[in-house]
Design a protein that fits this description.
By secondary structure, the chain is of the alpha/beta class. The chain starts with 6 loop residues before the first helix and ends with a helix. The protein has two domains: 2-41, no CATH class; 53-211, Rossmann fold, CATH 3.40.50.300. 26% of the residues are buried. The protein has a seven-stranded parallel sheet with strand order 3-4-2-5-6-1-7, sandwiched between helices. It is built from eleven helices and seven strands.
Length: 256
């Protein structure tokens, strides 16, 4: 609730609580922002960590597919059809993106519902109920609108858009694979996502193979792979590279 902007309401509730009181804070992940806010309400708290975010993520089967930007929605449809999951939670990074993929899936005759910030709370609840009852196969959601929702034994999460942070990635993937159930997460990657996805992998100590789905071969210009600078033979042996030192000295002299 702290992360969703209910700080004012929480303060109002706490101001009416009698002293002494016990205050407990629960969160799937604890970001620096949550820690900072928590200091306002907690006094020398005891921290109990059930499992790390890395433990949660490592229990899930991960796949990543590279695709051209203009074929992203088409590939997503193909993946939904080929994996055949009866329930799919699909994450978009914005309301515009969510509406776009929602309309695309509708046009492809896929049973789909949607939740985001512009949709009324009651309608969000209806959309979630449709997925739980099997009336729809796919629920399109933004990160904020999906906080707190729970879908028992959800088999598949799709990152249609890559999340903005590692914590958001952890929140998303934590919707599947609960209570030791099998779960899968598929991340759709365009060229602009490569660097951010690599950072998520480093943060969570993951190594996820980037695949190319048959029929979706890449035509977009791919980012150049920067190769690490090779050390000279002298440097490899731990010696001193006199030639390199002379070149650096000349450069400094020219700059005077």
């Amino acid at each position: 609730m702290l992360d969703l902007g209910f700080l004012r309401e929480i303060k109002a509730i706490l101001s009416h609580c009698k002293q002494p009181r016990h205050t407990m804070l629960f969160s799937a992940t604890i970001s620096q922002n949550i820690k900072k806010l928590g200091k306002e309400f907690l006094n020398n708290p005891t921290i109990i960590e059930v499992s790390s975010r890395r433990d949660v993520v490592n229990m899930i089967n991960h796949k990543a597919y590279k695709v051209d930007k203009d074929k992203k929605a088409q590939l997503t449809t193909k993946l939904i059809e080929s994996f055949g999951a009866n329930q799919v939670l699909l994450f978009a990074s914005s309301k515009i993106s969510a509406n776009s993929i929602y309309e695309y899936l509708q046009n492809k005759k896929i049973r789909v519902s949607i939740i985001h910030g512009d949709i009324k709370r009651g309608d969000r609840a209806k959309s979630l109920k449709l997925l739980k009852n099997g009336k729809t196969q796919v629920l399109v959601a933004t990160d904020i609108a999906s906080r707190g929702i729970d879908i028992k034994e959800l088999p598949l999460v799709i990152n249609y858009d890559l999340p903005q942070s590692t914590d958001d990635f952890t929140h998303r993937v934590g919707r599947t694979g609960r209570a030791n159930q099998k779960g899968m997460v598929i991340s759709i990657l365009t060229t602009r996502d490569y660097r951010a996805f690599s950072k998520i992998e480093r943060d969570l100590k993951l190594s996820i193979k980037r695949e190319i789905y048959k029929g979706f071969e890449l035509t977009d210009t791919q980012p150049r792979q920067t190769q690490p600078k090779k050390k000279s033979l002298i440097e490899k042996k731990g010696g001193f590279d006199f030639h390199k030192k002379r070149v650096e000295k000349r450069r400094r002299n020219r700059g005077r």
